[in-house]
């Protein structure tokens, strides 16, 4: 017989327990757990959905798979019937989030923010159900707040508490500059929760201070405080650093299906299971069964292929995922994909380094030479070892690494 998780004014049913399990899957922290259980129980008893908020500042034009860890959680809670609020921080982007930074983050222009926000919205809807998503921009309430409102808001938090924040404290003790406007960022993000009357706010582990600020300000404004759910930062393809474009260890959710599939296949067998927990929509029981089979001798490649197909199909479709699998098999056997870019160049005879650069297969001739030294360049399936090679007029299939191909016609 199931025992109540906590004492609440409403019964903790099996549906509440299921919702709690969905909430906790893969999460880092749920604060405070008992209050979230009480909110879930009240929501079910009243048949009123809870308001679940995720805010993202459109600081870059593209979302990568690492960003989807929190978006996936949002979708899971959306599927349970709760109201999901996808908040685009167009106002807070103009301040610049100092989280985890050793220096002041440069603010974006209004034009950059608008362009990035439109891209974020389109990409987020690859995961969220647009018909069940409340899309908001925090300029809606932040702009009207004005100077008077900003001063009144700032009066609700102390400098001493603000300086407890790790990145501020570290920068202060190291003598690094902290601009006054950076103190406004967590205040404004916290005020978003007041404006939206959120019941739960999601974020990465690096956002914990800001999420707690929202809970504090809701209490200051006489609201029932939100609970907060932090999700881990996903390790990138290297399995070491968090996924980041700057580290070049990422999968962009707008990348082509073949590249996406191949990148998933490149991760380690160990990292694969963490990705399953944070990125897959399979049940925990199904993942545990698959892991048990691998531990019992099944080829881990089978599990990785299933994960690669699931992720690829999510951002493309099942047919594209199947085709990407076949493309990966062909490449692993040294075959040439059915469809590769066609490039026409002039200047024959042309040096191999210049050809790779002009064909977009290497960022520079020096990088092209490095790839040749590493045995990573092939022409018509033959490995190139001579950096001084000059190619006469003709058509060649050029391959760099395992995934880059081009049919180059040189005149």
UniProtKB/TrEMBL annotation:
Principal location listed in the UniProt entry: cytoplasm
GO biological process, one term: tyrosyl-tRNA aminoacylation
InterPro entries: aa-tRNA-synth_I_CS, aa-tRNA-synth_Ic, Rossmann-like_a/b/a_fold, S4_RNA-bd, S4_RNA-bd_sf, Tyr-tRNA-ligase, Tyr-tRNA-ligase_bac-type, Tyr-tRNA-ligase_bac_2
A Pfam family per the record: tRNA-synt_1b
Keyword terms, alphabetized: Aminoacyl-tRNA synthetase, ATP-binding, Cytoplasm, Ligase, Nucleotide-binding, Protein biosynthesis, RNA-binding
Residues at which ATP binds: 245
Subunit architecture: Homodimer.
UniProt protein name: Tyrosine--tRNA ligase
